[in-house]
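Following up on my earlier thread - several people asked me to post the actual chain instead of describing it. Fair enough. Here it is, all 553 residues.
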Amino acid sequence: RAAMVASSGRNSSSLSLTCPMSPTRSSRISIVPPPSPHTPRGHSRTSVNNAHLCRPEVGSLVQTKRLGQVRGQDLDRPDPSSHPQRSLTKAPQSDLVHKEDALEAIMSAESQLGFLQMGLYQLNKLNATRVAVDPADIESVDKLDYLMDGLDFESPSEHCLDPQRDSEYLEQNELRLWSCSSQEYNEGSASPPEWFSDIEGLGIGIGFPSDPGPPAKGVDGRPPACQDRIFGARCGEFTVLGLANGHGRPRTSEALLKRIAELLPPALFQSVPFLRQDLAGALINAFHHVHCEASQELDLRLAGAAVTVVLIDDHSVWVAHVGDCRAVLGVPDPHANAASFHFAPNCLTSDHTLAVSKEFDKVRDAGAECRKLVNDNVYRMYIRDQEIPGLTLTRAIGDRLAHAVGLHHTPSVAMVERHTRAQGDTGSFLVVGTGALWSVMSERTVVNWISRHFSDAMSAAESLSSEAAERWQDPECTTKRSLKAGLPESFGSILIYFKPPEAAAGSTARSFVTGPHSVKDSHHDWDTVKHKGRADELRRTQARLLPAEELAD
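Reply from S.P.:
Thanks for posting it. Predicted structure:
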């Protein structure tokens, strides 16, 4: 440590600086200040006691300013002494850290959920169908019987509060019933009833594939039971037409479809809402009654059916459905120059499947576990930590175990007034098909497949079902990519023409015209229009060249 010490002698003007050079010796350096300009020459300055001055230590926080660095007061700057001194505090932790931690937790949870839904389970193609899982090889069904607590017999709808049946209407009017499956129809053991053609203002046709393909073997070595059935009823002024598509064990499903065809029309006409002329409430009541009766007669833990029912009277058309049997109304295209050959689809139903976000949210909130498995292309509904029921449907008759996790049998109901179909669009029609039919043919394709190309509703419905079955057999069909090869499906359809019987006349094939609409002599066949030479001729015409001159060159 260096210290400046004043030299001996009062009039001495020299200062000595002693600084430690080494632990053993020190060096004295003499510093002589220059003479002050204010001191007269020949006079000496008064010695100043500088003993209190010292050089700061290395690393010291105390620093001295040189005289040349001292500035005057800046009047435009506030006095620093007027501000209170701020104490040093620790900087708080940034909110970004908390946000990053929260985001990491969310991403981890989503990754875990995705793994549980996709990677934890893998779909076995041998046990999966289009809408469910084949319960033949499942052994853990009995231990889940505790889930069937009878709540599925208690419908939340106000139309089902009164379970009483009233036969007043049936006593006054005769009830005629009819039903058939695709196997019965192709074998000739069942045919459409005569009263189909007796209904004024309607043309009714049903269709099944004429060649369903090679029969697949069931679990017991026999061909699987047909899991589609069309049924109808006539009582008074009302006509009932229905299509049911079953799933589950084949024999149980076949028995369920028969009971639906037998129970639903009488339940409709005997319900209390029907006597109050509440047709929507009568349909809801009939669906609930059929579910309760069939569940007491059959083992419907893993068997069920998608059902669509059409109720027609003189003024309106009512459509009620559960599942994915869609009903589509085809009307002539309202665009100019298109009404004579093109039809526009108007869907009267919305599929009750997990592919619909509203239905997905309902069953998930009710406790179902929705998974999209490895090798599968759709979401399926499961009981938590179980491998059943594997349904893609969210509403169906039956499926009692699935009722415990959100599935229900309350139908959606829509209505169309018949007089709106008679105002210039007598070619309008209603087509009902199974979920498999709509999976291979779009709504627009279906209505234009029928269009005005058929004079008979029966031939139109049969053609539609056969086309759908042929498309299903195509190896490139993406719908069955995750299913077992050769898996049989159902393609039943119902067609209803809303037109007078005398107006039922098929249209000729559409003519293809080149040139303006005013030219009537330029009609050509399709073979000519699609020919490559015809396309070349059109290109030359557009280039304002005559074909003969070009060939001559």
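The chain has a mean pLDDT of 77. That should answer part of your original question.
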